[in-house]
Amino acid sequence: MSFTANLTPDRDTGLGAWTLRDFAQTIRTGRHMGRGREVLPPMPIPAYKNFNDADLAAIYAYLRTIPAVSNRVPEPLPPGPAVQAQK
Asked: What is the DSSP string of 32-55?
């Protein structure tokens, strides 16, 4: 199970400490901070990873303007055992 990230500029729980380079590398590689764990759905990385530098800079700049919200998001959970459908 994955959870949506806090994309607000909160320094402790959001993107406030991220640089434009961190943001662009995350989108382009599909890895947290460009080198960490895989970014999971619901983030549509395949749709975003081909954005050009200007597009990524514009998205980053916009995300810096929204109000910061302190909201620690849980780490992703591994999938549970498969459940058989009842008939």
From this structure: GGGTSSBPPTTS-HHHHTT--HHH
User: Using CA atoms, how far apart are residues 86 and 48, in angstroms rounded to an integer?
Assistant: 38
| Phi, then psi, of 29 in degrees rounded to 5 | -100, -20
Helix axes 20-29, 53-65, angle to 10 degrees: 120
Cross-strand bridge partners of residue 38: 31
Tens of pLDDT, residues 1-27: 778 889 999 999 999 999 999 999 999
Instruction: Give this prediction's pTM.
Output: 0.79
Q: How far apart are CA 24 and CA 79, in angstroms?
A: 28
Q: Which two tokens stand for residue 78?
A: 């591994």
27 by DSSP, 3-state: which? helix
